[in-house]
Each structure stands twice: as C-alpha cells, then as structure tokens.
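name: query_chain
kind: protein
chains: 1
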Amino acid sequence: MSDQELHELTQVRLQKVNELRSKGIEPYGGRFDRTKFAREIKDEFESLEGKEVRVAGRLMAKRGHGKAGFANLQDPSGNIQLYFKSDDLGEQYELYEKCDIGDIVGIEGRVFRTKRGEISVAVDRMVYLAKSLNPLPEKWHGLKDVELRYRQRYLDLIVNPHVREVFIKRSKIIRSMRRYLDDHGFLEVETPMMQPIPGGATARPFITHHNALNMDLYLRIAPELYLKRLLVGGLEKVYEINRNFRNEGISTKHNPEFTMVEIYQAYADYEVMMELSENLIYHVVMEVLGTPVVEYQGVKLDFTPPWERITMLDAIKEYSGIDLATVADDQEARSLARELGLEMDGNATRGEIINAIFEEKVEPHLIQPTFIYGYPVEISPLAKRNRDNPQLTDRFEIFAMNRELGNAFSELNDPIDQRKRFEMQMAKRSRGDSEAHMMDEDYLNALSYGMPSAGGLGIGIDRLVMLLTDSPSIRDVILFPTLRPLRD
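structure:
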C-alpha cells in the first residue's frame, strides 16, 4: 500500500469519527465489563448457548450480506464470530456499517451456533471502545517485513498470533524459574541498575551522568558484585531477574539490553551450580512445554539431566586434536595461534588464546546441553582457582545449539587474590582493552570482612526463551529490541 493510499484511507476513517460524534456516539469509549473471552465461549458452549455474554476485542474481519453481516472479534484468548442482523439492531446496525477492521468494540449478545456449525455471538448492542484510524496491514509475514515487525511490535502482536504466544511463553518461563528458586529457599532481591563502577563481567558499559551529584554512572553490565556483597551481609541464597546493558554489537544472539537471572548460594561451589542449572532449566522446560525434548530449528534438544560435562582443554583436544595442556607459556600460545591463523593481540595471554581456539574449534559442535568447565584464570577474574591446577578456575559455561546459555563458578572470596586479578585487568585496560574489569575498592573492602565460599550462576533468559520457542533471533523474543534508526 502506497503512502498516498494509506493517507486516503486514514482520512475516510477520520470522517467516520466525526460522523459518529455528530450523532452523539463517542468513538473512544471507556470502561466495558467483559463477562467471557472467545475461548471460554467455545469451550463452554453447551452451558452458554442462548445466554447473554459481553465480549470485547479488535475486529479482524468483516463481511456483509444485505441486511445481515458478520465480523471476527479477536481477544487475548482467540477469535469469535459476531453476527449482526439489521432487523434486531435497528439504528445500531449503522454502527456495524461504520465499523472498520482494526476497531476495538464491546459487544453484548446471545451465544448460538450458525447453520454452518460455527459458534458465534448474535449482537444485541455494540459500543465503540477505540476507532482505528490506520488500516491493519494485509500481508504481514516473510523476511521483507521482519524489520517493520520489530519496529512496530504492536502491529506484530495484533496480526501474528504466534508472536503473542512467544511472549506469553516467555512470561511463563520467567514465572516458572522464579517459582523454582523461591521454593528452594532463594530470596529475590534488587540491586542497582546505575553503578559508579561497572563490574561482574568483561564488557563495555553505557555511560550516563547524574547532574545533582555531578558524577558519571554506568548502566550495569552485571549485578554480580552487588549480589556477592549481600553474601557478605549474611543473605546466603539470593537471586535477581533483571536487565543488563552492554555497549556491544547487535546480532541474532546479542542485544545491548538483555535479561538475565543471577543466583548465588553460600557454602556451595561450581558443582552445586551445575546441578542447580540443569535441574532449574529441566523444571522450566517440563512445566512450560511438558516434555524435556525441544525442537529448535529442526534439531531436537534433550534437557533431561544429567548433561554432558567436559573440560575446556579436553573439548579442544576432542574436536581439533590440539593438546593445549602441553602449551607452557604465553609466547608458545601466540606461536600456536599464528599457525592456526587466529588473529590475536600481540599481548594475548595463554588463557585468552585457549579461549579463542575453543570458540573457533569447539563451540560449533556443542549442540546438546553441555557443561564446559576448567576456564583459564586470565579470562575469569572473579572465579576461584582450581586447587590442582592454579592456571585454571572452577568455572563452567552452559552451551546448547552452539551458543552460551549461562556462566557460573566457585566465587573467588580471597580479597588478596581478587586485588591481584583486578590489577591484571587494569593492566589490560592500560593497553587499550576497554572491556577489562575496573578496580572496585569497595567490593574488595566487602571481601575483607569475609565472604563465605559460594557458587554463582548467571543464565541468559532471552537465549533460553529462543530455544524454548524455536525463535531464530534474539529480537524475536524481546518485545522492543534495539534497532538502527530509520533514515530518510
């Protein structure tokens, strides 16, 4: 539809608004007490047949037959057919004639079944609740519309029922997760979204400014350091479901604003977090979908515990044949990276190169839910070192469909070691790494009062919802994703 055609249709509808008001009819009504949803009428037809109901929703189709007409009304539960008869409605029939697809109306009428067997509502009275000035799009699917769908999510939700189902399912996933954690003794808390020092992850933050205090603040990249302060304060099992913000690129797997659940448990470790991870996600999958086997983009994933567990070094050896356990230092690791054709910074450490090789050689093969553990200390500034191999940490990440779903570790609670890790990160920042962790003296001060040994876990809600709703892009599961602005 051209802009000119759209403008002309809008003008016709504006004229209808004026005509209605000239007759004392308000096209933007107020309260309407609905008694039944469309789905309820169909499910309870035997007891409702011949009885009065009040329904409300948006008109999605309209067709007339002389002195009678039909329309389809859509509400959150589905669709119901409406039957308008001029002999029964009198002057009210004129309201039906002035209706347009997209109008929101309230209906009083009797439940019946048509000769063709369709359960319907015979209209006795109709009221306008909101006149739609813009026509709904006639065709709203296919790749050509994908950007418009994200930009105008309100239209996407109106005309694509499967999109509504995705977001209903997203809410059920979060509710199920929250219920599981509450039932297992975890306390839901809230920590600052604006922080004087961004911590808890290696990422570039968004910066804002507080005028009254004349100070820069950062939108948080993670709630981790504040949640661990709560462990110091004696709250032993805490979690938070909320937004994080990272000033990074946009892709099918990344959005600058995203949702995570972070969970911390005192006197636990990364192995306890492994069990919690698989049991929590299994519970969510079973409660929301009713089966542990999920099909994603034609691939069946089985979330039944226990999931596969393999160390990062063993996984690299299995999928590439490279034994990185024999690589002794940074220089030898850099030489190996050059042989493999990996572009690495000249100051890249052994641990950073191990991680780069893992991403290149292993991640594409991690389809079924898998725990990868034993991450290098250089890329794990907040995780406790492994006692048997101090070059590694007691850290794992969850993978499925070759993407990371979660990150967890035994929490580093030694303030002296933590200061050294921060100093290593600050050295990286001085060499130009804007994603390296900042020094956080208050967090170190909190650790100096004693934080119990603990396990911590973060799971990306958006990526989990992608898997459980068979959605190929993260923008399919975020109601209003970040998009590049339109240009004239």
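note: The first helix runs from residue 3 to 22.
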